[in-house]
Amino acid sequence: MINKIKITKSERIILIFIVLLGIFTLGPLLIFKNKCLFVKNYDPSKITFNNRKDIAVLNAKCGNVIIELYPDISPKAVERFKNLTKLGAYDGAAFHRVIENKLIQAGDLEFGKKENLDYGKVGTGKSGLGTIKSEVETSFKYKRGSVGLARTFQLNTEDSQFFIILQDEPLFEGEYTPIGNVLYGIEVLEKVKFMPKFHIVPRPDFINSLKMLD
Amino acid sequence: MTLFRSILFFFIFVTPLKANTIYDLIKIPNLEIYETNTINRLRYLYAVRPFRLGINVKKNIHCLNPDKKTLDNKYKIINKNLNRYSSRFLKRINLRYIVLCENLSIAKINTAGIPNSEMRTLILDIKFNDAYFERAIHHEVFHVIKDSYQELFNEVEWRNFNTKEFAYSDCSTCSNKLSLVTYNKTKGFFTEYSKSTASEDMAEVFSHLMVYQDKTYAEDPIIKKKILFIKNNITTIDTTFKF
Predict the structure, then answer these.
(1) Which residues 126-185 of A have a C-beta within 8 angstroms of B?
(2) pTM of this prediction?
(3) ipTM, interface predicted TM-score of the complex
(4) What is the DSSP track for A70-126?
């Protein structure tokens, strides 16, 4: 016959203490693992815009990034960006080049889409629409949140790839074609996955969707 | 094969990231912005540490970081002289970045400047001979101009301005004709250095025009032809250009 051993009061207290200790130590780890926890997700339907036809909404892992486009500054580049956006071409495109606190780049429609990501070629892909001329004549101050079209080392090679800068870049003025500025949600971009010391991001984050507001 | 691919992948993609905007733009390391707010949109950069780089030949260009006081003083002179070129003209000649450093040398030979129109860059030695410093700035700018407009500045045509007995050296440093002192009696050449190559001769004529205009030398028929050649071709690039 086995005698049932009754748990003592002090043992019960120790057990409760251990359980609580576990909750308080592991709990925050689980909470903070969610990198989007403190990122505000802006709802464009709750914001009033004067120029709705020039507002693009990029949805990423941590929420919406609301971008105002500047067709008056770079008409051709904005037209290209709008056309691709309206086609849904950027949906599922990787943030393939991410430099911490500096720049994120996406929009390789040939080698940077979720379904056919090619690590060997990502960043070199084309849209199939051909290149467009650089529009760098108008004065434009590249500040944190500015959006521009990426190009090769040569001017007039802009296509579909774009970048958003996370810090001021005075030397970009006159070098890269500006297309807009982030109005809301730049903190969403700061949570995009990056890898220190890597040119490209292995298993990158993707654009869930990129749409024009109107 | 898998191992080979893995190693290849590692070397191609896991190389250190140079998250440096200036390096990305002009491929010169160790630079920082000195001034970007200029009337002609020139961007002035300066060396914060010595740098080495190679244009055509690997790492044969060397320059040191300048001290702050010299940099501030020389910047005023450089800026004053380069402000004479409009943003339109600079765009046409492919010049956008001015790199300021000291003791600039190429293949261990000291030089006032090194132009690279492909990178839209002119590297200037801010400690170059004070007596000819301003002239040297324009001299180097001319090399940028010529690089961008090779067809305009035809060396065969230029050589014909000289007397039949005269021949240039094979390269600018192939002779000891290095003096930049302006001759009292020009006889077809402004300086001894003009006699080194046709390209240097053109640059010397241009720099003399920019600094002294053409108020003297009118009596030298060869110089007159050379001045006319330079003026005509520069105004072909930009009709509003003022010497």
Answers:
(1) 169-175
(2) 0.81
(3) 0.74
(4) -TTT-HHHHHHHHHHHHTTTTTTBB--EEETTTEEEE--TTT-BGGG--TTTTTS--
